[in-house]
Amino acid sequence: MRLRSLSSRLIVYAIIGSILGYLTLPTTFVVCVLVTGAYGGSASLDELTRPRVREVMVAALRKDAAGERSIAMTDALRSFMSANPDFRFAAFDPRSGQALAGSAPELVAAFEGVGRLKLSRSTVDLPVGGVMRKAESALFSAPIGEFVVVTYGAKLQWRDLFLLPYYMTSLYGALIFLPHWAAMCLIALFVVNRGLAPLRKAAAKVATIDVNSLKERIALEEAPSEMRPFIEAVNKAFERVQEGVDRQRRFSANSAHELRTPITILRARVGKMAEGPLKFEIERDVLRVQTIVEQMLLLAQIKERGRIAPQKFDLYDVVLTVAADYVPIAIDNDREIQFEAPSRRVTALGLRWSVESIVTNLIANALRAEPAGGVVIVRVLPECAIEVVDHGSGVADADRKRIFEPFWRKDDAPPGTGLGLSIVRELVELLGGDVSVDETPGGGATFKVRLPEAGADPSEAAAGVAGRVVQLSLDQRCERNA
Fold it and tell me: Looking at the whole model, is its pTM more than 0.90?
C-alpha cells in the first residue's frame, strides 16, 4: 500500500536503503578491490570465504556410536569441493593433537601436533605440487566438541559475498543484527524529522494566514533550496488572492458608495408622494435597499477602519444610546425594549462606532424575531458583555454558526438582508472579542457579545440609571401616541 505520509516514505526508504547497502557491502568492497588492486588484490578476497568454510566444516564433523570422531563427506561439503577443486581440509583433536579420519594427508603431515596448541587462528605456507599454498587453522566449536580445523584452497564465490544467511541460521545470529537495524531506524527517524522541520515550520506559518492577514509571507531565508520554489509559489498565490480580495473590497465599497446618492434622491421623491398604502410600501422597500447598501459599505470599510487605535468608552452609555434610538421603531411595530443596566460602570476598550453598529444590528435582528406585543431585553453585564434577548422562534443548533455567514437566511419569511449578523461577527473579531448565541429560556434566541475590558470603577453603580432608562421608554411611547 502506498504511503501517503512524506515522513513515512522517507523513513521507510532510508531503512530499506541502509539494509540493502549493508547486504551489498561485501560485493561493493570486492568490486573496489578488483578495480583498484588494494589490499593485495584478488588473493586477499579469498578470506571472505571464512563464514562459508566454517559452516560447511562444522556440519561435516561427526561422532559415531563408538565415540569415534571423523569428517563426513556431506552434500554441502561435496558441493563446496566441486566449486573449489583445490580445497583441502583436516581436523585435529585439541587435547591429543590426533587428526580425525577424513583429513587430507598433506595437512595432517604439516599440522600434526599443532592442534594441541588450540590456536584460534594461524596460517602456514605449504609446498603442494611445487606451489606454495597458504593454509589456515582455526578453533571450531561443533556440537560434538572443539576441534582445530585446517583448510586451504577455498576461492571466493559470488554467493560468499552475501553474509546474511550465515548469521541468520541461528537465533543468536539473528539477534546480532537487531541492534544494528534498530539503530538504523532511529537514525532514519532523526534525519527525516530534522530534514522536514523547515517544511513543518512553513506549514504552521501558512495555517495562521487568513483573509485578514494575506500580507504575511513565508520567509525564504531559513528554507532549504529544494523548498524555495514551492514557498515562492505559495507566496505568489497569496499575492494573487490578496489582489483579488482588494479588488472585491474596492468594488463593493465603490458600488455601495455610488448607490447611496440615487437612493437618497429616490427617498426624497417618494416623500413628496401623497399619503397612502402605496407610499408606505415604497418607503419600506426603499429603506430596505438603503439598509443593504449601507451594510455593504460598512463591510467593505471594516478592515480599513479597524486599523484605528482602540479607545476607552463607557459601554453602558453606548448601548443605552442605541437602545433609546430604537424605542420609536419598536413602538411602531408593537414591541418594547427593556434595558437592564450593569451593577457597576463598565469601561470597554475598542472603537465606539463598532460597538454602536454591533448593538444596532443585534437589536434590529431581535425586533424582527420578537412576536407582536413582546419585549426585547438589552443587557450590559459587569463582565464587559452585552446580551440581546428575543422570544421568537430561536436558532436551531445546526444553524448557530451559519447565521453569521453573509447573506445567509433560513427562509425568506422574515424581513432582513442577511448581512447584520455577519457584520456583528466581523466587528467583534476586529475588537478582539467573541459572539455567541444561546436559547432563551421559554423560547427565543439570546445573543451575547464579550468585549475587551479597559477597567471599571466599582464605586459607580448603575442601579439608579436603570429606572431612568425605563422612564425614557415611557416618554418615547407617550410622545409617539401624542
Answer: no
